[in-house]
Structure formats: C-alpha cells, structure tokens
Amino acid sequence: MINGYQQAALATRLGIPILYGADMVHGDSHMTGTTVFPHNIGLGATHDAALVQQECQVAAAETYASGVRWTFGPVIAVPQDVRWAAPTRAMVKTRLWSLSSARPV
Whole-model pTM? Predict the structure, then answer.
C-alpha cells in the first residue's frame, strides 16, 4: 500500500515523495502475520535490555518490509508527569536505565 502511494507520488509532475510515518508501539500490528508486542511498560518491566533490543530489531524489520520508513515507536521514555496521557508507552522508571538501553536499530 505505502509503496504504491510513494510510486504514484513520484510519478506526478513535481515528483514530491510522501513522508509516511506510523505508530509502531506494538510493532507493525497493521499487517497480517507480523508480531504484536506488549506495551513498552511491559517490556521495561523485564529489565532485560537484550530482549528489548531483540523486540526492536524484529519490529524494525517487519515495519521496513511493509514500506514504512519512519515510525513513532518503540520508544524508550521516562514519564515526567503522572498526568501524562500515555504512561504505558514509557519503558523505564529512571533515566539511568533509559540511557544505558537506548541504541539505534
């Protein structure tokens, strides 16, 4: 789907590409046959940085295969305010664990 939109956009007179982003907090759950992961707070509760890295690699590969090149998750974040609308999207409780776990995929 996304690749088709991109090809159509590039075939227009101006050839301006589409910047398409998707929320992949659970992985690429929009596609049949992909892996759906728990919320970040559940992954962070494992205290297993290697497992989280593995989840991120699987999510990145599946997302890339579906044509998405820009995503909004998984996210390593530290909630700063209990009134934040989505604390379950936070993966860690302290900045120290966040800094030691964050690596590009």
Answer: 0.68
Residues 6 or more apart whose Cβ sits within 8 Å of residue 25: 39, 40, 72, 73, 74, 75, 89
Peptide bond into 74 cis (omega under 30): yes
User: Average model confidence (pLDDT) for the chain?
Assistant: 77
Q: Which residues pair with 71 in a beta bridge?
A: 22
The CA distances from residue 86 to 45, 64, 94, in Å, are 16, 25, 17
User: What's the rounded Cα separation, in Å, for the pair 53 and 100?
Assistant: 12
Q: Tell me if 89 sits within 8 A of 25, measured CB to CB.
A: yes
pLDDT, one tens digit per residue, over 17-51 is 998 888 877 777 777 888 888 877 777 778 788 88
